[in-house]
């Protein structure tokens, strides 16, 4: 039977090495992709679109999703102030249209998961209808938000979906296993009756918010340049409470102060129907 001291030493060794597992693919492929590195000055922001534009774009799209689903939203609407209720029209008899159609009508494009155009890269994300203008918010990176000090050891083992923000906050965008259970449990914890604080449908094959597939965007290569970039977005307090149900992120701890962290993917150029989205996994903070 191993002594408590040797168990402790073994655990300490694993603990010290686990930070290198967050992005194992990046570590293994860095030398092959040096030309695609993206450099950001220390403490810098790396923003392609202004926060106000990101917020406007998300609110506009989420409002369209909410309005099209108004029949199902009556319990929530009845809890909101009259000024908010008056922004939404009384439901008719029409059925809720597919979220993709709402996205196309509102933003002029849709995206979805398909087998990647790159060899051995698994699933990727493609523009399926319309085209994305440069600077538009194309996608969101869903998942559980972990502050730097919060425990993510077990969720991180063999998990290629852990995204690291420039300030060290982590997002676990894995839609399977323990990561999925953690997301579901945090989401139920924060729900107040009909008022949902996040969208957990990205864990299924039919997300309510079709933008929430950003964790499947593959890395650019020397032949396929990046056409989207990641951008941190902190959800302001003024974000409409009835639209939070479409945000695909939830905090791991409910008692963290400050705004909810999200990450959006912004188009670096016009992206046309049929093109795969490629981001840059290799951001070096100098
Ligand atoms: C965040 S996931 C992206 C989704 C992934 N394609 C999938 O099907 O689950 C990151 C993983 O995708 C694969 N990947 C991403 N970009 C790639 C590329 N340019 N070439 C080969 N594999 C890639 C690697 O296996 C990496 O660990």
UniProtKB/TrEMBL annotation:
Superkingdom per UniProt: Eukaryota
Matching PROSITE patterns: SET
InterPro entries xrefs: SET_dom (IPR001214), SET_dom_sf (IPR046341), SETD9 (IPR040415)
SET domain sequence ranges: 107-282
Transmembrane segments: none
PANTHER family, per database record: C5ORF35, SET DOMAIN-CONTAINING PROTEIN 9
Protein known as: SET domain-containing protein
The species this protein was found in: Engystomops pustulosus
């Amino acid at each position: 039977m191993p002594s408590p001291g040797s168990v402790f030493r073994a655990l300490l060794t694993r603990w010290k090495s686990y930070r290198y597992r967050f992005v194992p693919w990046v570590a293994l492929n860095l030398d092959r992709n040096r030309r695609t590195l993206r450099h950001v000055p220390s403490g810098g922001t790396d923003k392609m679109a202004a926060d106000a534009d990101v917020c406007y774009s998300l609110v506009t799209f989420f409002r369209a999703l909410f309005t099209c689903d108004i029949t199902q939203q009556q319990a929530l609407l009845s809890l909101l102030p009259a000024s908010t209720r008056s922004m939404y029209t009384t439901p008719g008899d029409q059925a809720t249209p597919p979220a993709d159609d709402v996205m196309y009508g509102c933003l002029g494009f849709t995206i979805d998961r398909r087998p990647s155009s790159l060899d051995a890269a698994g699933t990727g994300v493609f523009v399926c209808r319309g085209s994305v203008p440069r600077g538009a918010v194309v996608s969101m990176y869903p998942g559980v938000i972990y502050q730097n000090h919060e425990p993510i050891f077990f969720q991180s083992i063999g998990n290629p979906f852990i995204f690291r923000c420039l300030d060290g906050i982590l997002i676990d965008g894995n839609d399977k296993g323990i990561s999925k259970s953690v997301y579901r449990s945090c989401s139920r914890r924060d729900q107040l009756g009909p008022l949902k604080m996040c969208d957990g449908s990205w864990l299924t094959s039919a997300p309510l918010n079709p933008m929430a597939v950003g964790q499947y965007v593959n890395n650019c290569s020397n032949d396929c340049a990046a056409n989207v970039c990641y951008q941190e977005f902190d959800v302001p307090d003024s974000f409409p409470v009835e639209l939070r149900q479409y945000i695909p992120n939830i905090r791991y701890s409910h008692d963290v102060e400050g705004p909810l962290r999200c990450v959006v993917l912004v188009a670096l150029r016009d992206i046309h129907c049929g093109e795969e989205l490629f981001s840059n996994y290799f951001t070096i903070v100098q």
